[in-house]
């Protein structure tokens, strides 16, 4: 489900924006972070990245892909094996350019560049940087940009730029990794060269007019020349296509983003005469965003009839119905989406939400089962734990309620509330049970990191 921070999408993408993207964690010029969650877009990006990660010996499931609502061209790695993408990068680059950027960012992970930046972190506005990172973690966990903004103090722009900017040597190393890995896979690096040329002109602009990627990834003519030389004289993959399915996945990702975030533009870009799946997908989303629910549902039903096993079409229908006050109707497509994609925690949370919204106590147990599974898959989602707490409350399961509230508070970054509820859960839950052990872990973790006095 597509959800943003500014506009809470009911279907289970906690306080982000009905899609799934990640932009750079910067509050420059007073901007607030706005995270986005969307199962389909996150899945698409993981599919694109997996061959590169596997070639580098990195387990794809160990890497988190996050999306931030920002129109600028940017991507970055932070906090370990986490890759962040700006929505602007995803919607304004072609497939080859996006894969080139993805390979470059994975190069920073494979090269251990973040670990080697620890000295720079210690030397550059340490307090501001630490609070920025704490805010970032809280925002991702809670799905709320205002949480992160509350933690972050002044001076974060300078501190973050100092921490996230990579040295020219590291940038060159990430480029070499990207080109070498793409070549081994049998993929072209031409998109990477196109992206670098697009960004190269930015270096001549004043810093406040440069796109974020240039400010956090130092460019030099030598870097661009090295990539050009590789593409033109050494690569054996120029002109080769990526896997055929990648192109349609990319088209649908862009269509979905434009439909949710720029509905008026979507309706102009994808006219009724365009009957491609991506065009109808974009129009359905744009129409629903503009309140035209009936024609939107008609288009979604067409898409479902053509691709009955596509969980994301069923998910979209559920989201439209749920957000328009029809939770009982939303349950049916959500159930089908979960059946088709049982490991998508965001979809399970949406089904759980819809079941709770129906108001029928006979459905609470089903909601609880799906929310418990969603919590396993989306442990850092405050919304999932909040919904699960509601299910426990309606079932009068007080020990489990206290535990869920502890997890929810922890995901929001409210350590005092987390300790309070963890203490209660530890007192009420059976000693040695999984929830009791986790509540104990939360209490000990909070006490060891924060002065509670």
UniProtKB/TrEMBL annotation:
Key words, A-Z: Hydrolase, Metal-binding, Metalloprotease, Protease, Signal, Zinc
Residues making up the signal peptide according to the UniProt record: 1-22
GO biological process, any: proteolysis involved in protein catabolic process
Cofactor: Zn(2+)
Domain of life (superkingdom): Bacteria
Listed GO CC annotations: membrane
Domain Peptidase M48 stretches: 42-229
Protein known as: M48 family metallopeptidase
